[in-house]
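Batch manifest, entry 17 of 40.
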Amino acid sequence: MTRSPVQIAALAVGAVFLLVGILGFIPGITTDYDMLTFAGHHSGAKLLGIFEVSILHNVVHLLFGIAGLVMARAAATAKAFLVGGGIIYLVLWLYGLLIDMDSAANFVPVNNADNWLHLVLGLGMIALGVLLGRRAVAATAPGATPGTVR
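Output type: structure tokens
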């Protein structure tokens, strides 16, 4: 089975999210693991000692990873995963900038490192989806020969 570049990108992004979700549950890779809580800003656990995580945060990464792997099966859904996921991460970035990180509103939880990572992820996923997705759609348009780009 041949995969388009957008499918490969969605597969890779999904696999990374799955890996990050798993790593969030491994003591040592996640520092202060004994402070890991289900949700909320009181979770003191940090993935790689940098990114604040909770059980909810890790589960979201796992679900995002599974969605990426499943949606990578077709070019259109792979593009939807990358662009839609990128939009979600940009919204999460804005959310992290606007909330008081010491309040109950920080239920995910996020810190400054998470916020900037979410910005990069959001922009990167959207760019991958738009740029690679355009080629996949053009190559599968009626009358197009597979492998060509219009």
